Amino acid sequence: MITARAAASFEPVGRSVASARSFVRDTLQGWGFADIVDDAVVLTSELVTNAVVHAGTSADLLCLRSDEGVRIEVADRYPEREIPLQGTAVNMGSPDREGGRGLQLCAALAGRWGVEYTPTHKTVWFQLDLPARAVGTRAAGPALPADLLPLADGRVRVAVVQIDRTGHITAWSEDAEELFGYPAEQVTGKPLTDLAAWPHTPGTSTGIAEALQLSRWEGSYGIRAADGRVTPVYASHLRVRDTGGEPSTVCLLVRDHERAVLQTPLRVPADSATTSEGQSTDPFEVFIGSPAPDDLDGLLQRTVERARDMLDGDSAFLLLATDDETELEVRASTGLPSARQRFARVPVEAGPGRYGSARMPAVHDDLTAVPGAVPLLNGTGMRSVVTVPLKVEGRLTGSLGVAAEAPARYSNEEALRLQFAADRIALAVESARLGELERLRRGSLSFLVEASDLLAGTLDRDQTLALMAQMTVPTLATWCAVYTIADQASEPYLSYVLHEDEELIDGIKSLLSKVPPPDPVPTPGARVWTAPGEVAHQAALRSSMRSLGLSGGPTRQVTPGIGPTLATASAVGGETVVLPLVARNRVIGMLTLGKPTDEHFRQEILELAEDLSRRAALALDNARLYSERTAISQSLQRSLLPPELPTIEGVEVEVIYRAAGEGNEVGGDFYDVFPISDGSYGFAIGDVCGTGPNAAAVTGLARHALRLLAREGLSGPTVLERLNSAILDEGARSRFLTLLYGEMRPQEDGSAELKVVCAGHPLPLRLRPDGTVEPAAEPQPLLGVIEDLELYEQTVTLDPGDVLLCVTDGVTERREGARMLGDDGLADVLTTCTGLTAGAVAARIMRAVERFASDAPSDDMAILAMRVPGLHKD
Q1: What is the rounded CA–CA span in Å between residue 39 and residue 285?
Q2: pLDDT at residue 870 tops 80
Q3: Residue limits of the PAS domain (predicted)?
């Protein structure tokens, strides 16, 4: 009776064989048939190889579960291929020939097997029967003396965590709270990926999602505890479903050194595994082809776990060599503290703490006799160790080691077994590593392109600093700080701090403010900076001692401040590196990147950070230069504007000024109101040909010259004639200028007398209380064109309630398509301003101009409004 089935199809490519092996292994482990997994994987591998490699067709794989065992069928699309049938006298050939071994293996390992034909398919099947088991027994080990039993804490805590189908935590046991420090209400509903420090590589899958989807899974990873530290755990995952059919995953977690509590024992002891022919096989070979070739992290982690189990060790580790073979980087470990787990680096040949046994197999009976022989194991309690190199074509690519707490555990025989396993896995590891590097480089290029676009999109210094930090956290680092240097004589200044947890930013900023900044060394590349971690550790230690009453004061409860102190210490307690920000041959700052306690940077990430720092330095320097130029420009422009308008008794004065162009405060239009003598005031509004800095230069000349000449007591026409000569003296830089200039003297009867000269400028408009609008002057020649000007002034009296409106042509020439506001349109708007103050008149004119067209103004605009309110009666 068939109780379960699983099916999959595989393309006719070489990698399908490994995928088929993984599919069968995961399926049978999920069904609880671990006893027959190895035989099923071997047979499946041979039959799928026949289909996709030798026959060159796709393969359909079907697994059927029954009460007696498992039947596996492999079908291909090559039915005319000659296949010897079971029970015939056909000679299947020599076992040493290239093809035909699949059927020989079926005959040797399977309880039953056969071949079935259809017009389009050929199906080879085999059935594996389950071995007889005693009731209630799945696996058992021999009785051992107490001193050989695995070590565990006084109380073993098994955390039970349940994960729903989306990867979110739905249940969190009391032991989980004790192990990791999180109360259930804090983590319920969060994804497990927020807590799991899974071995991962940027640009590749972390593997946690895949592990949660398997029917059964066992292995090691890390859980980031509430204090920020990574706790290594051994996990057993079981996929279940409730009565409603909803799937979920139950995770049992123990501390990694207590893995014996959960770990499924091997089917046979490693040193006694034999085939039916009596030939010994190494269990390490069983999983050689099981991980996908491009799953580097999974491959490395399974390698160290099997290596440890194979030699019955307490820990194992695998390091990969850098491209130049000068350093080894920890990429996978099991049974070691988390500080040894990821990306710690040691030199291969020279220097203190060198890894002297990297290129040849080595056995150390007692590490206490040769301290420093294997730096990775310093302070771990390991006494004996065997290490072997991973080599590809004679080149060192890594090192694999197994260690034990007892001395003299390993001999040359174990070294040879481990070397044999390392030789079998070295090529797969190197292939997966190269694939990872290629994906990482592609991801790095994409990251740098996006970063360059973002940095090039702003010239604001503060925004550039924020972008630098946001691009590094959390992609490259857990936290970062940016120091800036104003000039060569200035000390580095802490300008920006960012952490992936916003609650820790203030604590890190406070800590770094107490640490002397790193030296601004221009040498390219990242250098390690230990000061933040040391100071954080000391501060946390002092806080802990004070909280426990060990600093000489009275004993008291833990203070509220110790929590943030410990959290900050954990946040900056890992590796911290500094990269110089160099632009235009000058160090303008430093980019500091940090990891939390027990974490290190991988070399590829540091190289990517170095590329980013070069781009960020140039963007930051460009922002600095732009800010300086902008400040200079704004300062010069403000110097061309008049100071505050004077208060004129009996006359209201209001000005609105808009310079065209982004960042411009002054253009070709200008205005001024200034005192000339007792009771007399000058006013002017003008328009220099053009806009921008060149026009603004003539603006400054005209405004200052007007003030100087008017205060010499000259008449209005004379003032403008001399200004005309000064403009013409500028030669090629001269520009013609339209100008309305006048002198105003308030009268005792509440009126104001004006003497006006309108040199080519739009005529001023006079608004009377009855709404009548009329020009208040006559047009005369503009300035800066001819030398001999004959100008004259006109006298205008503003009666109480009258308004004089003066504008530049940016107001009257406001356009919307073919329409233009014009003089008549301005007059119509002014007609509606009776009874308004000078400020209200100017504001209404400006609103009318802005609403006349939807586009931003393309010309400078100036509006000068003066109103005589009249005498107040008691």
Answers
A1: 13
A2: no
A3: 160-190
